[in-house]
Prior knowledge:
There is one protein chain. The protein has nine helices and eleven strands. It is an alpha+beta fold. The longest helix is centred in the first third of the chain and has 49 residues, at 5-53.
Amino acid sequence: MPRSFYARAALILTVPIVVLQLAVAVMFLQRHYEDVTVQMTTNMAREVELVRARPGLAEALDIELGQGPVPGRIARFDLSAHAMRDRFHQLFEGVKVDAVSTRKRVRLGFPDGTWMEFSRSSVSASNPHQLLVLMVAVALLMTGISFLFMRGQIRPIHRLARAAEAFGRGQTAEYRPSGAREVRAAGTAFLDMRTRIERHIEQRTLLLSGVSHDLRTPLTRMKLELSMMDGPEVEELTRDVAAMERIIDTFLDFAHEDAVARREPVDALDLLRDAVRSAPGEVEVAGGPVTVELQPGSVVRALSNLLGNALSYGTHARASVSATAEAVTFTVEDDGPGIPEADRDEAVRPFSRLDGARSNTRGNVGLGLSIVRDVARAHGGALRLGRSETLGGLKAEIVIPL
């Protein structure tokens, strides 16, 4: 079966029409048309017998007489001629039927060497193909009209699919339900779902932003008080405050609204270099320039998270960008311990930490890979985790379709 709904609907529409055409053609040609030919041939046979008994009536009956051999020739696909010949063979012994030599005429050859010639219309219906031509023409016309109507019915489904795809990429496309009742119901349900999701995202953003903002004031006061204190415990408290600041920054990144920012054409290699410049260490960069439409801020933030993880768990990191006709891929590799295949799904879940530590002095809240995955999904892509074949550590790829 075809994969598209339009092709399947077209197949459902055309197959019955073709089958109906074939059935009508077979029934008409092999039943009705042949029966009419047999009946007309029987009537003509009476005239032939009359002319053989009284040759003077030939001219009045539009029958031509003559002598000589008659070849028995019938066109292979002339169904009425076959029916006519079979009927003449039943009525006249040894007769030969020639329906090919003279156009629109039939010649009968008898065993005594005489022949009779008469019009083909006397033994078969004239222009039988007109019904078939008319039937095919009307079928093609109605099929074309049906295709146009079906295309109009499928167009609202395409609009709904485009709106859903755009929303999946973080864009809000204009959409108004239209079409049949079922399609309108699906479109209305999609709009309600989109509204609920947008409300949920807005509430999550306000919650995380508000909490993070409110926590900055006491943290700033704590930093000020620590700067005026002396003692062995000050250094440890300062590290704890710095870790809390990093956690707050991570919350703000997770709640950032760049995921719904407008795309613009940028050089993917330049974005990668921007992220590398902010990385806390040396990173090897590879790849060539390629211009794609991305959300620059969110992509740089995602790459920075990957580079930060790579340099936190390893000593050497490598970043590259590659492009094909279908997608652009950002790759970050390191020489760290990597992530076991069984734990990779857990690693990208929000607030998940695979180290299992109860303390969090490093400010790791388990949102780094989750942010990267959200950014990839906002572009209609995906985050893929694997093992680096060259460095031996984690290999993270952000694949974004073009």
